[in-house]
Amino acid sequence: MTMEEHIAAGPQWVQHWIQWMTVVNMAAVLFLLRWKDGRIRWGYVEALVSLLTLVPIVVVMTWLFNSYGYVRLLGLAHVLFWTPLAIWLWTRLSRHPLKSVFGVYLRVLLATIVISLAFDYADVARHLMGDTKYS
What we know:
The relative contact order is 0.14. It contains five helices and two strands; from the N terminus they run H-H-E-E-H-H-H. The protein starts with a helix and ends in a 7-residue tail after the last helix. By secondary structure, the protein is mainly alpha-helical. The longest helix is centred in the C-terminal third of the chain and has 28 residues, at 101-128. It is elongated and about 55 Å long. Helix content is 67%, strand content 6%.
């Protein structure tokens, strides 16, 4: 089975959570370019960095899946790349007030990443303790 088939066979809430993470992460595209001073300019660096972080996550998660299957260790990809991203985004919040659309988005993105990391750290720890398969 593919990773997508494993996810589809799992609990509905996991499918919804993955869909939510996908929408929130892909929404960063909306902030890559912006209109300023009558011209299109590069947008927010946080949006670019968050999108670029997805590349190594997909590579590592694909490698882990191909090497070990659908196991709890898959969360390691998020742990490795989203932990530093979450810390960095936290330090950038003061640059983007809550009254701006991007400020709201940045906080939603950070909250989504932190919640995911809670699951991922737990999954990786459980994997290391021998509980490898998702049930």
